[in-house]
Amino acid sequence: MALWVDKYRPNQLSKLDYHKEQAEQLQRIVASGDFPHLLVYGPPGAGKKTRVQCILRELYGAGAERLKIEHKTFQTPSNKRIELSTVASNYHIEINPGDVGIYDRIVVQEIVKSMAQTQQVYDSGSNRDFKVVVLTEVDRLTKEAQHALRRTMEKYTQTCRLILCCNSTSKVIGPLRSRCLAIRVPAPSDQEVVDVLNQVCRKEHVVLPPALATNIAKKSFGNLRRALLMIEACRVQQHPLKDDQQVVEPEWELYIRETAQLIIREQSPENLLKVRERLYELLTRCIPPSIIFEKLLKELLISCDSMIKAAVVASAAEFEHRLNRGSKHIFHLEAFIASFMAIYKRHLEETLMAL
Amino acid sequence: MDAFISGAKAKEARIAKQSKTTEGAAVPWVEKYRPRKVDDIAYQDDVVAVLKKCVSGSDIPNLLFYGPPGTGKTSSALAVCREIFGADGYRGRVLEMNASDERGIQVVRSKIKEFARLAVGTTRSDGKPCPALKIIVLDEADSMTGAAQAALRRTMEKESKTTRFFLICNYISRIIDPLTSRCAKFRFKPLAADVQKRRLSEICQKENVDIADDALDALIRVCEGDLRKSITYLQSAAVSFRGATVQVGDVDRMVGVISDDAVHLLIKACRTGKFENVQTAVESLRRDGFPAYQLLSQVFDIVVVDDELNDDHKAAICDKLGVCEYRLLDGADEFLQLMDLGCTILAQYKTVNA
């Protein structure tokens, strides 16, 4: 049984629930037969992938939905063999080059280029003489890989169009941006999330109390995927749904909240040691460090005096930047905690002195 | 015999049909209107003057083109090659390598050196004379490693009898000095607005695009001298608003400029002096998916002309803008950086009001 998220994913541009104006624009672009390279960006859970799939379907018909998973192997110059799984139909191929880390340049050079060079076999099913390469998480691509894309995008436009997906265009180099039509997919508003939830529940024959719907919408922060997963979790937990039902939050978020409370309670080297254990726990569970940073900061700010908030934010920004430059995550996370403790304690002492 | 002739005819017809389909196929305008001749290159007058001399038969130096994206570097290099060698001879005599090709030190040592060594004649395939040269075009040369660039040094000098190098890059600072000193350097300027406008209106006319005059101006303004970008956007705009006149608002929405309202939302939140307001503003900006990098430059535009702030305040904010920009390029988290920036602006406004 499919998750509700997948089950009710719209598969046509005309069936999208929000950003209808943009959908119409996309429809016109596809219909004109002319199709530029696209750069689709927006926050997670806003529906970027859904739109890309709709575009593909619009381009090639139902054939684009018959997907198969392929494993491609290739060799690096240092004779290391690397495997990459791709999702492909007859008309398009979807690759996440970020999966192979620093070897992403070779993926672009080998796989994307060879895809781009081969011509689409003309068949009656699709009237397009180009195929589409979908690259996800382009913002995780190294600079070299992005450079490698530049000329490929121009040289083989006859046979191949690219759709690039990413969360933010900040990390996409200028020359790539200037080759693409940028499409921004904003997160749905809370009301739009509620509408979608209502619609899904109606189809599932579940009665959704309005208060619960708004509560979930608020907790999802505009991430529709998260909202749908939450409502399904609620449904599994208890049926029929109740107005004041507890919305299940991910365990790691609770864990970070507890960690923040621990930090606020006591600022000492011993406590730092305890916090370190918890940080390790989070890291071993594969929670991305930048997300830990953000959640932790938000939780800490709640119990901070407004005098020191700016200093706390500044130190978080600085250490998160260092974390990206460095390779050992725990150092930078811990450095932030330590500097927060220092700022917090000094402020406490100063206020006590003033009294 | 008849069968043979009819067979040939059928083949001819097929070829004709094929060429028709490729003609009718959707070619992006960027490719369709890419300059084929040196004369067609817009705006880069001094470069064109030198290149014309090269084409007309005088000696060709090693060339180094640099400048921002979309100003015609690759187009000029390829146009020169095409004019010197003709469309047919072009293939055998020009080796084009870009960042999508493997070009580490190994490739420089083997492939480039091999190619540079070959000698060629002084006639083109169509019988016209041409210099006895081959050209190696190294596109996006700034993404080559230092070692690979160093390996080129001696090759460039040794094979100067038979081979010329055209290097193309965005940032000349990333090309090692020994290479730059071996080349004639040309800077490609961002295109002036009126030149761009002439080009775009030409295309509009040929493609029957109906676009309002001020919309065209807006398009040119946001593309900042990048002709490729403006043509890409023009085509997309033409396609998505087919049948209607393209207006200013459409252009703004299309090119991903953050609307002034959104930027002012952040500034206003900073003015209130309340930290919570800044946090909500940043969160709502992120929910709308606005790229932080773009936001930084637009915040800068507003802050610089704000009369309320004195020079010290502006300096403090610009300092932070610089730090945030650097961090963002390093891959730092957008939310944290924007919060940091927001806090700084907030603090500055606070001292103004105090």
UniProtKB/TrEMBL annotation, chain A:
Q: What is its main location?
A: nucleus
GO annotation, biological process: DNA repair; DNA strand elongation involved in DNA replication
Keyword Nucleus, does the record have it? yes
Asked whether the keyword Nucleus is assigned, the reply is yes
The family database entries (Pfam families) matched by this protein are listed as: DNA_pol3_delta2, RCF1-5-like_lid, RFC_C
CDD domains the UniProt entry points to:
AAA
Subcellular location(s) per record: Nucleus
Provide the Gene Ontology terms for cellular component.
DNA replication factor C complex; nucleus
Q: Which InterPro entries match?
A: AAA+_ATPase, DNA_pol3_clamp-load_cplx_C, DNA_Rep/Repair_Clamp_Loader, P-loop_NTPase
Q: Recite the UniProt keywords alphabetically.
A: DNA replication, Nucleus
The GO molecular function terms of this record are: DNA binding; DNA clamp loader activity
Instruction: Using the record's annotation, list all stretches that form the AAA+ ATPase domain.
Output: 34-189
Q: Which family does it belong to?
A: Belongs to the activator 1 small subunits family.
Subunit details? Subunit of the RFC complex, an heteropentameric complex consisting of a large subunit RFC1 and four small subunits RFC2, RFC3, RFC4 and RFC5; the RFC complex interacts with PCNA. Forms an heterotetrameric complex with RFC2, RFC4 and RFC5; this complex has ATPase activity but is not stimulated by PCNA. The heterotetramer of subunits RFC2, RFC3, RFC4 and RFC5 interacts with RAD17. Interacts with CNTD1; this interaction facilitates crossover formation.
- Quote the function comment for this protein: Subunit of the replication factor C (RFC) complex which acts during elongation of primed DNA templates by DNA polymerases delta and epsilon, and is necessary for ATP-dependent loading of proliferating cell nuclear antigen (PCNA) onto primed DNA.
> How is this protein named in the record?
Replication factor C subunit 3
UniProtKB/TrEMBL annotation, chain B:
Write down the CDD domains for this protein, in alphabetical order: AAA, HLD_clamp_RFC
UniProt cross-references to Pfam families, sorted A to Z: AAA, RCF1-5-like_lid, Rep_fac_C
UniProt GO cellular component terms: DNA replication factor C complex; nucleus
UniProt keyword Nucleotide-binding present: yes
This protein's source sits in the domain of life called Eukaryota
Its family remark reads: Belongs to the activator 1 small subunits family.
| Any one biological process term the GO annotation gives | DNA repair
Q: Which UniProt keywords apply?
A: ATP-binding, DNA replication, Nucleotide-binding, Nucleus
Cellular localization per UniProt: Nucleus
Q: Spell out the protein name for this chain.
A: AAA+ ATPase domain-containing protein
In its UniProt entry, the species of origin is given as Plectus sambesii
Gene3D superfamilies cross-referenced by the UniProt entry: 1.10.8.60, 1.20.272.10, P-loop containing nucleotide triphosphate hydrolases
**Keyword Nucleus among UniProt keywords:** yes
Main localization, broad class:
nucleus
